[in-house]
Fold this sequence. Notes:
mainly beta
Amino acid sequence: QVQLVESGGGLVQAGGSLSVSCAASGRTFSSYAMGWFRQAPGKEREFVAAINWGGGSTYYANSVEGRFTISRDNDKNTMYLQMNSLKPEDTAVYYCAASTVNSRLRERKMYRYWGQGTQVTVSS
């Protein structure tokens, strides 16, 4: 089992940048593929980005491609999401998640463990 804690959310103006982190504890972090999802009020939780066990492969939603960067540091048991050129529509609670498999990482159901989320608000 792994415990996930997000941090780094906050309020930023449109066009600005923000970085969120996900700290993991428990089983070996490097044995999990990791992902970021987000949920805006009244909407379904949606895929944002994912990274495989070793960090060599990354995946992005079309809406964030070119603006967001996912990364991980297995020595620090931490995953990151650098968000640039933020838009008001990026406003949501951002969740990190861990998957025991290294495939279909865009699918929410592939993730077994979830953090509590961190709020990101982008003002126009």
